[in-house]
Amino acid sequence: MTALVTLEGVSKSFAAKGQLASLFAGDTGRDVLAVDGVSFEIKEGEILGLIGESGSGKTTIARLLLRLEQHDAGSIRFADGRDVGALRGRALRDYYRDVQMIFQDPYGSINPRFTVFDTVAEPLKTQGLGTAAERPDRVARALARAGLKPVEAYAAKYPHELSGGERQRLSIARALVLEPRLLVADEPVSMLDVSIRASILNLLKELAADYGLTILYISHDLSTTRYLCDRIIIMYRGRFVESGAAGQVIDEPAHPYAQALKAAIPIPDPTVRRAHADPDADEEAALETVTGCRYRPLCPKAMACCGTSVPDLRAIAPDQEVACFLYEGLSPHATAEGDTGQP
Amino acid sequence: MTEDLLQVEDLSVSYGTAEGPVKALDRISFAVAAGETLGLVGESGCGKTTAGRALIKVMPANARITGGTIRYRGRDLVPLSHEEMRAIRWREIAVVPQSAMNALNPVFRVGRQIEEVIREHEAVGKAKARARAEELFNLVKIDTARLDHFPHQFSGGMRQRALVAMALALRPRLLLADEPTTALDVVTQDRIFSRIRALQRESGASMLLITHDMGLVAENCDRVAVMYAGRIVETAPTGVLFAEPAHPYTLGLKNAFPSTTRPKDQTLIAIAGAPPVLRDPPAGCRFAARCPFALEICRREDPPLVEVAGGHLAACHRSDEAPMLRAKAADSATWTRTAVPA
Question: How far is CA A114 from CA A105, A177, B34, in A?
Fold first, then answer.
């Protein structure tokens, strides 16, 4: 598979809040490095999952891809060589034909005064696509693909007449009407109820399988990601800690953070017993700013080298890469496990 | 034989709206025994949060209890005055709220907020309240120096722990936890629940856990009550509910719930449609419109909650056919049809 989008060494930092806010927050005015030199590809036709807890930088990556933010360093290139960071005006507008987004909140991201038809027709108008006579067909096609069928039954409805699942289908239809190549989906099911969530996940799967749509799925939830995605990347505080085939990484995580994440998920089967997190684990440590590996303060396997250098992603299996010195057999820094790693 | 700490019977709650009353809870009944954890599960709008709030009678201004009883240690809370309820809240029934961010006052130090709760309900001096707050922080494993910090100086996990500490401040017999960890990442959630379970074991308190997460239910609850559209549709010991669910809605939930332990290629099956609007609920079973097993009678007559086995109740006209329904529910084709004939 060829790469649809390639990110290389992409970083983004945000200035610490204004003076008054930082006074209250007690911070020293340092910039927050939300994304720290990440490189990856989104391959044509795949569903790639980007996983992390809040603050890990996953949504920032989505916003950079959509040019809602501008990256500070590195490059983001689309398949045909377009430099996403350099797009302006008309070129940027054209880019949004290829890259569309759906959001977490199907209530807040739709104009309540627009009918279903108008909501989906709007992007065609802004993009100046199709004649007024052609548009109804394109809208109907998008609605049908998003599962709002029969189309006639939905076209004249208003958002408040739709259920949560139907509203999320509407935002998917609005994205699909431009026939984009990449769909960025930021937590698209986290606000939906369980019984409806499955139908949206299945719809995304169908869109990838039937129309070759490439999807970047951003989530904090390992179980939906495992179900939906071909490949996944796990982020921790702005960096990638592990990536690979979804089944491989989630079933047999290698990075200590990925292992902790997996181990903490409650299992919906009362006959299964799992080891629970230590309720007394030190949460102060998670707030520390650190040099070296950012997971070091919480890592049960941290070594001396973890405090001085940053591990890079390296392959440990055909479908699995991990950024952890534990797997760097040849590292001259490697010491015995259990060393707390104070430099 | 009432060893139940809490007994809710036929409780109904309505919200007054411009378009007429919305029956958020329609004659729900459940009980929580001493030391037991009951899970109240269901989707948004099913009434689970309303049920929790009704128990402590902290409800929005337009909400009204329209019927039923809430017996706590034998005494009905429904007719109690605001003042009488104050003596019950915190001291007897304490709440671990959903959002730690909003539940703490940002302008006061956390320790002071805990001390205030203690002093408001117990005739103790400042020093005693402080000592008790320190004891509570030790219990939830937060450095006591942090009592003098403001909420924003805490991490999300620490704030939630502080709220658990606050809920335990007056040694309540019943903890009411409404999605207590939704705002937290899973690792922190796991720690908070480990801590809550440990504290519960020590104190013998009961818990009503309100959640949509079947994983949390499986791991924390002794019994479960499943809610749908303002009703309890099924209740059973946790093991039984997961192994032998009888109500089609529960069967559907089980199919739809993703898990890292199920085969990756096993298709999740959605339940088509959406819950009914409670302003104008349909006649008959409220799940009938989405139920692949619905019969003529289901659209006409409301099924009562009846026992299908010891301690296992379901509100379904076809609950005596449960083994057959379970077998058919596992097939995704079942859920694309609207009704499966008998």
Answer: 17, 16, 53
Q: What does the pLDDT read at residue B266?
A: 86
Residues A193-213, mean pLDDT to the nearest whole number: 93
Note whether B194 contacts A276, CB cutoff 8 Å: yes
* Interface probe with A: pick from B219, B266, B269, most Cβ of A within 10 Å: B219
- pLDDT of residue A339 exceeding 50, the answer is no
Helix axes A135-145, A116-127, angle to 10 degrees: 120
- What is the per-residue burial (b if ≥16 Cβ within 10 Å, else e) of B275-296? bbebeebeebbbbbbbbbbbbe
Determine contact, residues A154/A185, Cβ cutoff 8 Å.
Answer: no
Instruction: Dump pLDDT digits (tens) for A145-196.
Output: 999 989 999 999 999 999 888 999 999 999 999 999 999 999 999 888 888 8
- What average pLDDT does this structure show over B220-244? 97
Asked if B258 lies within 8 A of A26 by C-beta distance, the reply is no
| pTM of the complete model beyond 0.80 | yes
Q: Is A261's CB within 8 Å of B256's CB?
A: no
Mutate to test the interface with B, among A24, A154, A163, A194 (most CBs of B within 10 A): A194
d(CA A238, CA A35): 4
Q: What is the DSSP string of B56-68?
A: HT---TTEEEEEE
Write the burial class of residue A88 (CB in 10 Å: 0-12 exposed, 13-18 middle, 19+ buried).
exposed
- Give the DSSP H or E segment for B323: helix B322-329
Question: First-to-last CA distance in chain A?
Answer: 43
The two tokens of residue B138 are: 């030790």
| The pLDDT value given to residue A185 | 96
Percentage, residues of chain A above pLDDT 70: 88
Nearest CA to B293 out of B273, B317, B315 is that of B317
